[in-house]
Amino acid sequence: AQSVTQPDIHITVSEGASLELRCNYSYGATPYLFWYVQSPGQGLQLLLKYFSGDTLVQGIKGFEAEFKRSQSSFNLRKPSVHWSDAAEYFCAVLNTGFQKLVFGTGTRLLVSP
Amino acid sequence: DAGVIQSPRHEVTEMGQEVTLRCKPISGHNSLFWYRQTMMRGLELLIYFNNNVPIDDSGMPEDRFSAKMPNASFSTLKIQPSEPRDSAVYFCASSLAPGLAGERAKNIQYFGAGTRLSVL
Predict the structure, then answer these.
(1) For chain B, does the N or the C end have fewer beta carbons within 10 angstroms?
(2) Rounded to the nearest 5 degrees, what angle is found at the Cα of A112, between the Cα atoms of A83 and A10?
(3) A48 contacts on B by Cβ (under 8 Å)
(4) Quick one: closest CA in A to B109, which residue?
(5) Are the Cβ atoms of B104 and A32 closer than 8 angstroms?
């Protein structure tokens, strides 16, 4: 069965510093991967997705993620974090039926002044 | 587009009462998903529909939970009777179902703002 691991429950980053959130997946074929962000009291917003092609994908709000098949990873990055990026970030993989999303447990990002 | 619309945003009820959560998917989307989010279990898929038909309800926790989609623009999730352990945030999401093998690109799920349910 597919699974997603986000090893960091919380991460604190200073404003202006770079960010990397880790995501590892377990999937038997080429995965379709997503990163969503959830701001407090809000629903999940899609940041970016990987289906095929270029392994470095660009998303909204200045985020990017790199798919590394050899490491079964899809880490999310941002070169300079803003205070408004404080939120919870979820990595997800689409299952073999192409409809069910399997989510990781999320990483809560705190941004310090 | 208004996005996925859920109502109510907050619901407080007493144990034993019936609770109905509502969802209006994005116009033109033909798949609808209900999720539950808790601290202990994270985001769990409860049930999803394609073209108003329930496809997979294996995530529905027990018979107290039921979901319907009477038409393409409306779905409900009902809990009867409600219990304190049902307290959670319930999300609805919609997408375009892949019509043919390989059309995975259509399956991007868009989420509503959620309903925060508190059962006292």
Answers:
(1) N
(2) 95
(3) none
(4) A46
(5) yes
Which pair of tokens denotes residue B116? 């925060």
Query: What is the Cα–Cα distance from B53 to B60, expressed in whole angstroms?
Result: 15
* Cβ-contact B93, B109 below 8 angstroms: yes
Each residue of A45-104: pLDDT tens digit? 999 999 888 899 999 999 999 999 999 999 999 999 999 999 999 999 987 666 888 999
Q: Fill in the amino acid letter for A35.
A: W
The two tokens of residue A38 are 């959830």
User: Burial of B91 by CB count in 10 Å (0-12 exposed, 13-18 middle, 19+ buried)?
Assistant: buried
Q: Is residue B111 a contact partner of residue A43, using CB atoms and an 8 Å limit? A: yes
Task: Name the CA radius of gyration of chain B, rounded.
Answer: 14
- Residues from chain B that touch A94, judged by Cβ atoms under 8 A, are 104, 107
Q: Which tokens belong to B106? A: 């259509």
> Pick from B119, B3, B18: which is nearest to B76 by CA?
B18
